[in-house]
Amino acid sequence: MLEDLERLVQLQGLDTEIAVLDGAAATIPGQIRMMEQQLIQAKAALDASTAEVEKLQKLRRQKERDLEEAGRDLKKRQGRLYEIKTNQEYAATLKEVEGLKQKISTLEEEVLVCLDDIDSAGKIRTQEEEKVRITQAEFLKNKQQREDELLKLQHRLSILRKTREDRSEGVEASLLQLYLRLLKSRDGLAVAQATSRSCEGCHVALTPQVCNEVRRNAEIRTCEGCGRILYWKG
After folding, report:
1. How far does the chain reach from its first CA to its final CA, in angstroms?
2. I need a surface site. Which of 10, 158, 161, 183 has the fewest CB within 10 A?
3. Whole-number pLDDT of residue 234
C-alpha cells in the first residue's frame, strides 16, 4: 500500500476511535447529574413525608388539648348541676353537659383518626427513608464508577491524540489538508473502504476501472460520489 495512503487509513482509525471515546466521555457528566437529580428527588419526597408526619402530630396535640379542655368544662358543668336552684337553669346546664359529652366523643374519635393517620404517614416516611438510603448508596457507587470510567477514557484519548499527532506529521501537507476537510464535511469518515462494487462511505457504485485502481492501493483515489479517499482492504 502507498505509504501516505496507509498513514491516512491509520489516521482514520485513530479519529474514529477518538470520536467514539469523546462521545462516551461527554455523556458521563450528564449521567452523574441525572443520578444526582434522582437523589435530590428522593430526599425531597422524604422531606415531604416528614412534614406530613409533623403536621399530623401537631394536629393530634391540638385535638388532645381540646379534649382536655372539654373534659374540664364537663366536670365544671356537672358540678354546677348540684348547686342550681331553678328548673330552667338546670335544663340549660344539662343541655351544656350533653353538648360537651358529644364534643368529647367527637374529639376522642378525631384523636383516634389522627393516630391512624400518623401511623400511615410514619410508614410512608420509613419507606422514603429506605429509598433515600438505597438511592444515596447507588449514587455514590455509580458516581465513582462513572468518574473512574471518565479517567480511563481521558487517559486513552490522551494516548490516541498523541499517536494521531505523530502519525499526522508523516503525511504530505496537501493530502493531510484534504483528509481534514473530508473528515469535517463527511461526518468523521474521510477514508472509506472500497468493496468490489461500491464505496462504503456513500455506497455509490464504483466503475471497474476505479475498482481495479483502488485494489492496487498504489495511488490516492477518491470516490466520485462523496469524494472520500478510497482504499482496498486486502
Report:
1. 10
2. 158
3. 74
CA distance 99 to 112: 20
For 170, the grid coordinates are 508523516
Cα gap 124→137, rounded to integer Å = 20
Q: CA distances (Å), 217 to each of 77, 134, 203, in order?
A: 112, 59, 19
> 74 is written with which cell numbers?
364537663
Q: Which three cell numbers stand for residue 229?
A: 479517499
Instruction: State pLDDT tens for residues 148-162.
Output: 999 999 999 999 999
Kindly state the percentage of the chain with pLDDT values over 90.
90
Length of the chain: 234
- State how beta strands 229-231 and 221-222 pair: antiparallel
Cα–Cα distance, 101 to 23 (Å, whole number) = 74
pTM, two decimal places = 0.76
User: Residue 20 has which C-alpha cell?
Assistant: 467514539
Cα 73 to Cα 53, 67, 181: the distances in Å are 30, 10, 93
Q: Which three cell numbers stand for residue 160?
A: 490516541
Selection from 22, 32, 17, 15 nearest residue 148 by Cα: 32
Query: DSSP characters for 93-162?
Result: HHHHHHHHHHHHHHHHHHHHHHHHHHHHHHHHHHHHHHHHHHHHHHHHHHHHHHHHHHHHHHHHHHHHHH
User: Is the per-residue pLDDT at 197 higher than 90?
Assistant: no
